[in-house]
Amino acid sequence: MSGQAITETRILPVDRPFRFESGRTLERIDIAYETYGCLNERRDNAILIEHALSGDAHAAFYHEGDKKPGWWDCMIGPGKAFDTDRYFVICSNVIGGCKGTTGPASIDPATGSPYGLTFPTLTIRDMVEVQRILLKHLGIDRLKCIAGGSMGGMQTLQFFCDYPSQFESFICIASAMKHSAQQIAFNEVGRRAIMADPRWNNGNYYGDISPEGGLSVARMIGHITYISEKMMQEKFGRIRKDKDSKAIFKPSFEVEHYLDYQGVSFVKRFDANSYLYITDAIDNFDLMASISSKERFRGQGRDRGVNFSDLRTKKGLVISFSSDWLYPSSQSKEIVRLFSALNVQVSYTDITTEHGHDAFLTDYRRPSELIRGFLSSLG
What we know:
The protein has 2 domains: 262 residues, Alpha/Beta hydrolase fold, catalytic domain (Rossmann fold, 3-Layer(aba) Sandwich), CATH 3.40.50.1820; 97 residues, Rna Polymerase Sigma Factor, Chain: A, CATH 1.10.1740. It is 34% helix and 16% strand. It has 11 helices and 14 strands. The strands form 4 sheets. The protein has an 8-stranded mixed β-sheet, with helices on both faces. Strands 2-3 form a two-stranded antiparallel ribbon. Strands 6-7 form a two-stranded parallel sheet. It is globular.
């Protein structure tokens, strides 16, 4: 790790009530976040990075003692797509998460026990509102860009539409304006796997053994959708690992062992209730319904209707991947059509790759070129 940049996750305690879109309120919340690079004197070089379902605030660089860097280190750093020599990059853990920001596993001050299923129902907009609190704390009124992939793309779209005056541009990668029935179905099977685990105990498993089996299966299901069929075949095929095993139904194919590894490693770092809450928020996200609504967000006292004239000077970059069957290119094209109709200057590229949905994390060369060029065009 010699010569690698070191960072740490910071916690912002917010000692005032936070009201969720549902109307429920928490008396206080914590926000976990990291920053990379320096904010300039004009305070106009900030970029907000949004993480996906299983991500967190640790997007880049290393934590002290870590063997691996943050989840998007390939994209964030000196000379990289999000160049920290030029930009002040921010990433926070979403509300409802389990890596520092208040979520179901956090302690409820009123009871002294974890919230569990008493935690309020969560939406993508709630995630956005918590990030606005962080930006205000950092003294940032306007962002150069907001960017994210998958669920991060949904946050990007929601934030951009709710507060267009706060942004110069957005980058949305491998995402959608709303989930299809198939996408909801995959998430529901994962949730059922968790809730069918006897150790889940209606969400009251803290202090005991967590529902590791159910969460592991949920992760396996999700991971199958992240990889293209061709890449999975090329990587594993029908290779057997335990050829001589006589045990009935014991995993023997290489792909079975791979999925088992993914499931086991995931339960060590993620909370089952957070998985339930966050996937539910993703499934209920509907950008068109959101921007067409003129209802006031409870407790915030401002109209949520989009001021279309605010969007004429904005720019957007939408990226999809040819082999992504979880978030197919057709859904990215819908995003392009919507924002073009709203007079946003949108660029779109469908990248040819066999990496599937995970391409936004693993096949970074071409996205890096596109993002670097897009940000340079902003001046």
